[in-house]
Each structure stands twice: as C-alpha cells, then as structure tokens.
Specification:
The chain is of the alpha+beta class. Helix content is about 30%, strand content about 30%. The chain is built from seven helices and nine strands, in the order ββαααβββααβαββαβ. The protein has a five-stranded antiparallel β-sheet with strand order 1-2-3-4-5. The chain has a four-stranded antiparallel β-sheet with strand order 6-8-7-9, covered by helices on one side. Strand 1 and strand 2 form a beta hairpin. The longest helix has 13 residues.
Length: about 190
Amino acid sequence: MECNTPRLETERLVLRRFTAADLEPLFRLMADRAVNTFLPWFPLETEAAAAGYLQSHYLDYYQRPVGFRWAVCLRETDRPIGYVHVDDGEAHDLGYALAREAWGHGYAAEAAAAAVNCPRSGGVPFITATHDADNPRSGAVMARIGMTYRYSYRELWQPKNRWVTFRMYQMELNGPWPDYPGYWNRWPCHWV
C-alpha cells in the first residue's frame, strides 16, 4: 500500500489522489461562497488560482513519502465532490469539505471514517478536528466517526480576520493521549 494517500473505497465513495484532470471540480468547490463559509481561506476567484492550489496543495504534496490528502468521489462517477485530509502538523487536524449538492447524504462522515484508518496504521497517535460553533453539522460529522468533544476556544481567525468560537474534538488512534493543548495554550479565551 502507498504511504502517501492510498486509494480507499467505501460503500458509496472512492477516496483517491487528486489529478490534474480534477481542476474543474476542485475550482467549483473552492470558488463556492457557501462551501467556503467555514473554510480557512477565501473563495478562489479564477481557474488559474485553482490550478496553483491544486499543484501546491495536492500534486506537489504527493511527492512526500507519507501523507493523507484525498479527493472524495462518488463510486459511480470517480469525479471529486469534495476532499478529506489529515494534516501532518502537530495537531494532526482532520479537515473536509463537500460540494453543496453533496451535503446531507452522510458522505463527509463516510469519507472521514475511512480516512482516519491510514494515519492509525501509520502510527499517528491521535487526530483533532475543530469546527466553528456556528457550523454544528461539522461537529456532528466528528461525533459520528467517534471523535469526542474536548474544549472550546475563541480565535481571531485568519485570513478572514473575524472572531470565531471553535469546538475542538479529538480521537486517539494509537494508545491513550491527553487532550491536544495547542489551541488551548494559544488562545487565552478557552473553556470546557
């Protein structure tokens, strides 16, 4: 099995690497203002910007020896309807987004549940995920895959430069681990 973003299949989905041929669906996803509301960047304005994002965030990333960044595709079309990833930073942050037409079908939880098995088998000790308190559906995805709420914190969210209350969830993958302290320590307004 590949160590960087191996192909995964679920009952309804294929999780695979993005390719250059995925530019149009990735651009549609990343340009949609409704999808982008809770993402940590501004909507992409041009296909050229999407091409740069695809190259730097995915195609170049796949050259690393280990990684976890998938295109989420319906099995019957193999066309991306979103993405799921586990970041390689100290928080091992789980992130995901789906095109609007894919909302409400349970695809995010199905994709995320499949994706967390790779970092588990790769020895990653835990994963975290955060969601804006104004986006409880994202928290429901986290709970559905077995993550548990640990704490909340208020952050001046960049690059959007607005105050957001985030709820942090965590899942131990390899042994018991204490709550990830990074967000708690970084933002003085925090609570359980």
